[in-house]
């Protein structure tokens, strides 16, 4: 008889990670909806807002969000129609364009950020001591860098998606949010 290791700590780790992610997402997604943003809209805007010059190459934005290039194009198209993002041509490479957060996008983020940060504090970071949080962030970066090597593409000091190589995992489409 083959014994199946249902009590394996690896299964416990994955289960806990999944439960924490879905729990925090459930606690925070209503806030985004009241501001007329989906979770991927918020992720796109916050990544642009936190990037150098508040912009990212479209390919780097796709790599950071793990959206396909067509998926990120659809998200940026929608955000552009709402005036939250603009496209900017690259002056040195006609094949490249940037997604840039607009003042309206910054304002929309500013409307949800205080409550979002309070929610994050209540349901996540505030539950840990400063030492636990530092260790947890270090651990998350190790895991992120292993499973999503392109997650920081285009950030200060990080390679662009093209320079990061082909080790990036397959993209999820915008419907996979």
Automatic annotation (TrEMBL):
Stored SMART domains: HTH_MARR (SM00347)
Pfam families: MarR_2 (PF12802)
Stretches assigned to the HTH marR-type domain: 7-145
Gene3D superfamilies, per database record: Winged helix-like DNA-binding domain superfamily/Winged helix DNA-binding domain (1.10.10.10)
Region span, Disordered: 154-177
Biased composition (Low complexity): 154-166
Descriptive protein name: HTH marR-type domain-containing protein
């Amino acid at each position: 008889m083959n014994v199946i290791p249902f009590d394996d700590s690896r299964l416990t780790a994955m289960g806990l990670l999944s439960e924490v992610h879905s729990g925090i997402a459930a606690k925070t997604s209503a806030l985004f909806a009241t501001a007329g943003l989906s979770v991927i809209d918020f992720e796109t805007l916050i990544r642009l807002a936190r990037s150098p010059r508040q912009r990212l190459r479209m390919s780097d934005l796709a790599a950071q969000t793990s959206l396909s290039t067509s998926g990120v194009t659809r998200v940026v198209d929608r955000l552009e129609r709402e005036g939250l993002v603009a496209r900017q041509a690259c002056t040195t490479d006609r094949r490249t364009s940037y997604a840039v957060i607009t003042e309206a996008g910054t304002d929309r983020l500013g409307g949800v950020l205080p409550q979002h940060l309070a929610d994050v504090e209540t349901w996540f970071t505030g539950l840990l001591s400063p030492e636990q949080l530092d260790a947890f962030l270090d651990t998350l970066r190790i895991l992120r860098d292993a499973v999503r090597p392109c997650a920081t593409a285009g950030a200060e000091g990080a390679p662009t998606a093209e320079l990061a190589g082909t080790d990036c995992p397959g993209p999820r489409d915008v419907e996979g949010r």
